[in-house]
Structure formats: C-alpha cells, structure tokens
Amino acid sequence: MLFVFDLSDPELNIPFCLRLLLNKNSISPELLLFLPENRAANSFIYMHRKYTVIAEGLSDKGLVRNQNEDHILVNDIVFTDDGVRRVFPGQEMLVFAVADGLGGHRAGEVASRDVLRHLQVFARNLLPEEDLETLREQFSRWVMDVHQSLLRRGREDSSCEGMATTLCGLLFSGEAVVWFHAGDSRLYHYRRGQLDRLTSDHSQAALFNDPDIPSNMIANCIGAGKVPFIDVGEISALQPGDVLLLCTDGLSDMLDDDRIALLLDAKTGSAMVDAANERGGVDNISLIKLEISE
Predict the structure, then answer these.
(1) CA angle 56-284-80, nearest 5°?
(2) Count of CB atoms within 10 A of residue 140's CB?
(3) What single-letter DSSP state applies at residue 71?
(4) What homologous superfamily is domain 52-293 in, according to CATH?
(5) Is-contact 243 289, C-beta < 8 A?
C-alpha cells in the first residue's frame, strides 16, 4: 500500500500521520521517499534545520579548588576536566548543558554528573512537535523527579548527603531552540558585537536585589530545598554567525559581559578559560560555546 502526503499542505498533521503508520512498528518503504533525507520514521521528526552547530565544551578545575564539581553535556557525552569540539551538521535533536555541583567533597561532582545523565534520557524521549507550554510542564515534572532522586541518593549514601547542582542548557529540536535553567549558571546570546544574557540568576543576591549578598548563595537548585523550579524559554530566529554560550559561575564571576563579548568575537573557548584563570580562577570553570553556521 502506498501512502502519499503533500508535505506542503499546512493542514497536514505530519506527527499524527507518522504515528498512525507506525502503529505496528512498520512503515511502507514508499513512504520513506517523502521523508526528509529518508530518515528513520520512528523518530517522528519532520523539520530539518538549515544550519550547522559547532560545539566546543571545556571544563577546568581552576586554580583554587582541589577538584572539579562541574560537568558538561555535549549531546551524547558527559564529562569533566576535559574538552571536546564537535560539529553537528543539520542534526535535528541536540542537547547541551552545564551543571555546577554543590555540596563539597565528591558530592557535588556526583550531583552534576547524575543530573546530566538523567537529562540525556529525558531529551531522547521528547517529541519535537511539542509546544513550549507542554515542554515547560514536562521540564517541571522532570526536575522534581531528578530532585527526589538526588535526595534519595543522599539518604542512602552519607557521602552524598546535601549534594545539589545548578543546570543550564539548550535543546535543539527541529526548528525550535529551547533553553532551560535552574541556579546561577548562565546562557548568553552573541550576535554582531551585541551580547545578551538570556537567563536570570536564581541567587539570593538577585532575589533580594542586594549586591552585598555573596553571589554564590543560591536560591534555587536541583537537590537542595523542598521544591526546585526550572525556567524554560525559546530562542527565535537564530542566524549564521550567532554564538550561544553556556557557562558556570566560575567563568561569569571572573569575566564581565564586555570581556566575554570580546572573547566570543574571535577567540576559542579555551581563551575564555585562560582569561578566567588569569583573573584568579577561584572556582571550577566550565563552558559550552555553540557557533551557528550555514
């Protein structure tokens, strides 16, 4: 049986059609001719991004701390104390995030790593056609589940008691780019000399608008407190040449926005890590620099 769909028809519910055809985990070979690049139909992805994402992720212990409690997620890789550079040409589903572990000793390292591993699974199970409000609800449920998981780990293992983590990340899904954020790690958007911070710190200093409160006193994170929350938003109309920067406070506390913009304009991510260390490197320094290219 041959099914023919007019993909230019704005009334066509493509996800519904794919689900209908995949009801018995099979699909007519003829239908594959109508899917972008003959992609596997069980992904339910029907939008194709027209740009390439060049990702550079770096995590450094800094000059003062004895260990690195940060972790980085570059799509399918979770790591710390290392660097990676990867190119994603038109791949439909991507996830990137930084997590700054709290709790001291090895506990913070465990929290940041575990949250990013949970995030990988969560992102793989998302459907690209879901709208922003649905994603907000799903992220809210997910962050509570992960929060409870960290609390259970702390009760079962005394060395992990009190551990928690920040989280700041990006989800590329078809044409949509969604950001999510809990804590004081940050997301910046840089375009032609203009740097914009897209997240607001969940710190007590920001909450009470009091610069005298130490910046590392967090008002919201995953694994501490009773009810964490996560902000979720969308970036519209990315352009070739745009740069997105995810970073922990080990970078943003050392470098002001003007310095970050200058380094994003022409330098690699390692230059930003070096600059933060030159200013003292008092905390772990982690970042993901994402360049948008044609």
Answers:
(1) 50
(2) 14
(3) E
(4) PPM-type phosphatase domain (3.60.40.10)
(5) yes
